Every structure is written in C-alpha cells, then in structure tokens.
Design the sequence.
C-alpha cells in the first residue's frame, strides 16, 4: 500500500514558505525540493559529525562562533549530506555565502534565537500535514489580495517556484508561464478546470510538475484548486472592465468615422481631413500620423464573436503593443499602427508575424491597408485592410494580405458566392445535378482563366489535354456553354463563385 502524501517528509522549499524560515535570509538555496526528515540543534562539531542525510541543522553555541567555525560546519554538513544549515545572521558573512555556493549547500540566516527556531522547525517537520495546511492558508491570503488574473498567476508561480503554472484558454496560455504547456520529459502535467457563470468551463489552470512523486502532484493540484475562486473573481472583473472598455472604444471609433465622412453642414459626401479630437489621446490612440490599418477576420464568418474569443484575440494581438487598439467590427476586429514615417512597416510586420500562431488557432486571416494620414486616412486604410482580408481568405487560416499587393482581382473577394450558387441551381439544373459537377466546373474555370488555352489549363489542373477536352464537351452538354461570347463573362463569374464556395468546409457534399 502506498504511503499517504500527507505523511511524507516536508521539503526545504515548503519550509521556506512559512515562518520561521519565510523571514530568513537566503545566502544560498541549493535545492528547494530536498526533503527534511529531522531537525538537529548542533552545539558542537561532534554533534554535527553524527548527523544523518536529509537533516536540517540549526547551528548554536560552539558550532556557530563565526569565521573558521562556520566554514568547518559547512564542510561537515556537506560531508553528511544534510539538507540545509541555519545560522544566526551575526555569524555569517560574504565568505560564508561563497563557500556555501561552492559546496552547493543551502545556507539560511536568522535573526531570532536559534533554539526557538529549531523548536518551531522540529514541530513542522514532525507534522508535515499541519505545516502544509499552514502554507496553504498563507497562500490563500495572498491569493485573496489579488484583483487581476496576472496577479493570481504570479502568486502561484512564486509559491510553486520550480513548477511553472499557466492559465490556458482554448490552446493558448493567456497568463502565467508558457513552460507549463510545453512538452518536456520527466514532467507530469496537472490540470484544473476553472468555471465561469453557469458552471460552464472557462479556462484551465495547467502546471508542469517535475517527476518527484505523487505527493508533489497532489500538493500542486491542491494549490491550483485553492486559486480558482480568486481567478473567477478576477475574471468577472476583467470581463466587466473589458466589456466597458470595448463598448467605449467602439463608440469612439464610430464617432471618428462620422467625423471623417459626415460634415456638420451635410454638404460633404466624401472623406476629407478633420482635426484629430482631443479625446482620442485619452484612449491611448494615435491617429495624427500616417495610419496603416489591420483587419482581423474569420476565414469562415459565423456571426459576431463571443466575448471570450474577443478577449483571447485582444490579449494575443496587444501582447507587447498595449497602445494598439482593437475594435470589434461585426464578425471581425480593427486595429492600426500610426507612425511619422509612412514607409515604416517594420513594427507592423513584427506584430503580424507574432500574431500568426494565434490567427491559425482561431481561424483568422489578416488584411493590412496602406498608410494614409489623419482620421480620414485611417478610415480609407480600414476599407483597404478589410478588402485585403477578404482576399486573404483564399490562403486559409493565418493568411496575410497587404493591400499594396492586391490589385483589381480584389473585386472577386466581394462576390456573393452563396447567392450566385443559388442562381446556378436555377439556371444550370442538369449541371448541378451531375455527380462530376465539381471537376466540370473546375475545368471550365481553368480554361476561362487561361484565356481559352487548353494546354495551360491542363497543366494547371494536372490532367491530360484530352481529359480537358472531354470535360468541356460534357459541360457543354449539361448547359455550360462557356464559349458563347454573350455568356462568357457571366459563366466565368459563376464558375469562380462555385469553386470558391465548394472550397469551404461543407461547401460541396
């Protein structure tokens, strides 16, 4: 039968988190995971020589007179493989710290009476469960003082030290230490669900515990569960603050758009430059330089994003760029970078590169507009970025498109593919009912794209030229008369829309 975790020896790191060692100075802490099985109050070197491994030694009297005596005591402790040495502050100096580091021996200094400290430590070592309960109570007090998610994760990582902890939403670590979710050998992962309103899973606390046995795992899991109420309270406050801030930003951006397009006298119909309002600086926005907008959009639009998704996208996009706004616009998000130099794209390229992993995780594409000055220029860049994002959908998740490289083909990104497919169902009933309709439409589109060249179309499709001819003949029999000049443009657009629609998941059964 396995030993109960609560009766296993306490570790040096656990003792260092509670009094009296919590207030001790650490000249050198070699290995916090070293277990402590006994406390010895050593008054003589003879007593030191009788120490067994995994003992915590408190030096006193003859063994703690300073100078050579402390050096000798450290050497003896190293020879006996003790867990740590505790000595009065008045005895230890810089030379002692250097020796402890060279021997890799934990050396702690105290201000209280060594006898009193030894008695307290002896009680804690003899009752590890009570000492761990005290540690958890102190940790609970520290957690209750935190008002933010990062503060809660900071307490956990400070408390567990060698065990990295992260808060994970979806597959992204939004707070804490990323090492907690990295695959590493000899590490056991501990996960605790954190629930939101209605007991719905909101996130997970993940810790990577080195392989020290089941007791370490259970203690870590206990601390993670202890942190859940503080995390839930911090999350609720963050959600409230985020919702208020998001609504404020959306209203402010809407006002900026109106200032650029709607004059006070109602006579202006196109965007002209307007004075940058003073309240924009209160939001931390920069709009008076050359503004280059970014449009973050889902590859497959599915309505307005949830607050949780917006929170994740915002955290990832603004990581290291807290002064860059992120405004929800329908099913997408708008951001921009303002610079005195319109050709300075290096910060934006770095931001896009850093965001691509998150874009892939959330199924997003990125469109980037050109640089234009002032408020009106920002609105123009936003329109360009949106168009570029539509084009980027052809590249799939994490696709990036700069408007400078789009050109006239961007017009195809706005085609209402679903509505055009409905037209095909009505006008080309025989074709749409054929089993090989996908290959036929793709072949006709390739021929039209290649200006009627069968050789180029066959290379593009990766089939023989005769196969292309056979498919064209069958398409003509089913009503797809692509070679009639009066219908060529309409059929070209129709084929493009059908192929684009079928390329989407679930678009073609």
Sequence:
């Amino acid at each position: 039968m396995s030993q109960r975790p609560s009766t296993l020896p306490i570790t040096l790191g656990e003792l260092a988190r509670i009094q009296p060692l919590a207030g001790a100075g650490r000249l050198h802490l070699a290995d916090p995971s070293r277990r402590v099985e006994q406390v010895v109050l050593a008054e003589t070197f003879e007593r030191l020589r009788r120490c067994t491994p995994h003992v915590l030694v408190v030096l006193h009297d003859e063994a703690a007179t300073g100078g050579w005596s402390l050096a000798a005591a450290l050497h003896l402790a190293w020879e006996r493989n003790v867990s740590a040495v505790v000595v009065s502050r008045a005895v230890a100096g810089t030379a002692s710290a250097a020796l402890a580091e060279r021997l890799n021996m934990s050396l702690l200094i105290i201000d209280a009476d060594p006898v009193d400290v030894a008695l307290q430590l002896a009680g804690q070592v003899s009752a590890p469960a009570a000492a761990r309960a005290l540690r958890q109570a102190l940790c609970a007090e520290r957690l209750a003082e935190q008002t933010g998610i990062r503060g809660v994760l900071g307490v956990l990582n400070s408390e567990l030290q060698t065990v990295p902890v992260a808060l994970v939403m979806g597959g992204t670590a939004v707070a804490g230490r990323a090492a907690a979710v990295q695959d590493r050998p000899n590490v056991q992962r501990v996960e605790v669900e954190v629930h939101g309103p209605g007991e719905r899973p909101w996130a997970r606390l993940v810790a990577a515990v080195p392989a020290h046995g089941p007791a370490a795992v259970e203690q870590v899991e206990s601390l993670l569960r202890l942190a859940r109420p503080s995390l839930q309270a911090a999350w609720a406050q963050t959600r409230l603050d985020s919702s208020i801030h998001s609504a404020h930003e959306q209203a402010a951006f809407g006002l900026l758009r109106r200032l650029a397009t709607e004059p006070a006298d109602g006579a202006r119909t196109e965007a002209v430059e307007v004075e940058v309002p003073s309240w924009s600086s209160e939001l931390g926005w920069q709009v008076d330089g050359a503004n280059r907008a970014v449009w973050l959009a889902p590859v497959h639009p599915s309505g307005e994003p949830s607050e949780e998704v917006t929170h994740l996208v915002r955290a990832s996009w603004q990581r290291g760029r807290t002064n860059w706004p992120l405004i929800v616009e329908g099913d997408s998000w708008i951001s921009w970078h303002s610079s005195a130099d319109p050709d300075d794209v290096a910060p934006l390229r770095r931001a896009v590169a850093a965001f691509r992993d998150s874009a892939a995780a959330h199924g997003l594409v990125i469109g980037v507009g050109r640089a234009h000055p002032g408020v009106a220029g920002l609105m123009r860049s936003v329109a360009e970025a949106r168009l570029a994002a539509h084009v980027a959908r052809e590249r799939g998740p994490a696709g990036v498109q700069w408007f400078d490289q789009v050109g006239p083909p961007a017009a195809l990104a706005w085609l209402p593919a679903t509505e055009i497919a409905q037209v095909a169902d009505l006008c080309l009933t025989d074709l749409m009912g054929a089993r090989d309709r996908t290959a036929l439409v793709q072949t006709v589109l390739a021929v039209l794209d290649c200006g009627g060249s069968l050789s180029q179309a066959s290379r593009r499709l990766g089939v023989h030229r005769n196969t292309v001819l056979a498919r064209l003949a069958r398409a003509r029999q089913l009503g797809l008369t692509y070679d009639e000049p009066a219908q060529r443009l309409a059929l070209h657009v129709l084929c493009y829309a059908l192929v684009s629609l079928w390329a989407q998941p679930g678009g073609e059964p």
In short: The radius of gyration is 34 Å. Residues 315 and 329 are 17 Å apart (CA to CA). The chain has a mean pLDDT of 81. Residues 214-261 form the longest helix (48 residues).
